[in-house]
Amino acid sequence: MTIDTPPITAATQRRGTSTPATRVIGILTISMTIWLGVFGLVLSPADRDQGDAVRIMYVHVPSVWLAYLAFIVTALASGVHLFGRRHSLQADRVAGASAEIGVVFMAVTLVTGMLWGRITWGVYWQWDARLTTTALLFISYVGYLAVRGLEGTREQRARRSAIVGLFAVLEVPLVHWSVKLWRSLHQEATVLGTDLDVSLDGLMLFSLFVGVVAFTLLFVWLLLHRSRMLTMLDLSAESGLESALAQRRAEGGASA
Amino acid sequence: MVVLTLAVVAGGVVITQALSTAVDYYCNVDEVGVRSGCDTGRRLRIQGTVGEGSVVVTTGATLFDIEFNGSSLQVEYAGEPGGIFKECLPVVVHGVFNEPSGMFLGDRVEVKHSEDYVAVNDDRLQEAEADSAACETSA
Amino acid sequence: MTNAGFILGSYALTFGSIVIFAWRTVKVGKRLSADLSDEDKPWL
Predict the structure, then answer these.
(1) Which phi-psi region, left, alpha or beta, contains residue A122 (left: φ > 0; alpha: ψ -120 to 50)?
(2) ipTM value for the complex
């Protein structure tokens, strides 16, 4: 099958989704990530009670931060699509790209959390408020992506998923404050909980800060590339359909 | 459609699991037998701090006390607790009471890491030891 | 380092996932880019 494609230069092919801006962000991300490795694994101290296990925090917390950020961006973009005058499909693609990134980092968060839990708590998993709500958040966004994959027009996809994206984001504060909300279950939680609002040694706090900066840059880089990729995916599906139709007409509509 | 169905099913499973295991929920040591839902006749999860100098490791079992808010409880755990288990750290013990002896028979011990992180270095280590000698960090 | 397997494993898993995800995104982007004209790429 030959598809009628516009003339392509080698330069166009090489460009892809990258621009000078993404290259700069990419280099910054890589250098911050190297620093994260140095601070997280080498320079930061071991914890009095947890020992070296505390080092997992420097990838675990930035991952969940990135996932939260991604889900909030999905909700904002969903809002722009749903309530904006133009019902922008580009906003919908940003929402979809952001949710895909969020799901990846939510999975990373769950697995690194399980490894951390195995060392410190002694168990991989516990049906406790924080862990349960985190698992639900992950599943919700897998569901969001499944809704995007349902059959329908691009407008239907955008509308359905925008509604899901606006509801699912409500789970983010629920997860974050689950430790406090379920105090009745946890009783006087003087010591329990893995709140972000922790008291940390100076160098530990700085390592965590490096991680959060690195992952924020990483999110921007991924979102730019991924939303551009989704835009092209939509357009190539469209042009593929058009050229297939044109070809069929040219052939006299012989084939069904 | 398949993925969506799976996601909905998985969500249901997670909620059911969480609700069913929450049946034996956290009680602090001082609430055992006092607070409703913390009756000694049922399966419980009890939270307390491992008492200083109370850990005795015998063959196949570990004996220790857990304390909370001035109350103390003897625990017998079959095996060696995992995680970073040690004296003066907060733990949650899952198990049942052995009615005649009043001993709490734990079948699972979880060490709760606190939200305080303290670096290990020479100065701090001494401070930390002084801390744990008094066991004043929690409860 | 105590529990080195768990700790290094969590770092490897995190950075490994990032690299695979980023690489796939860029690769698919390049493949799609080859089939589309520059007018369809407003970021250029």
Answers:
(1) left
(2) 0.94
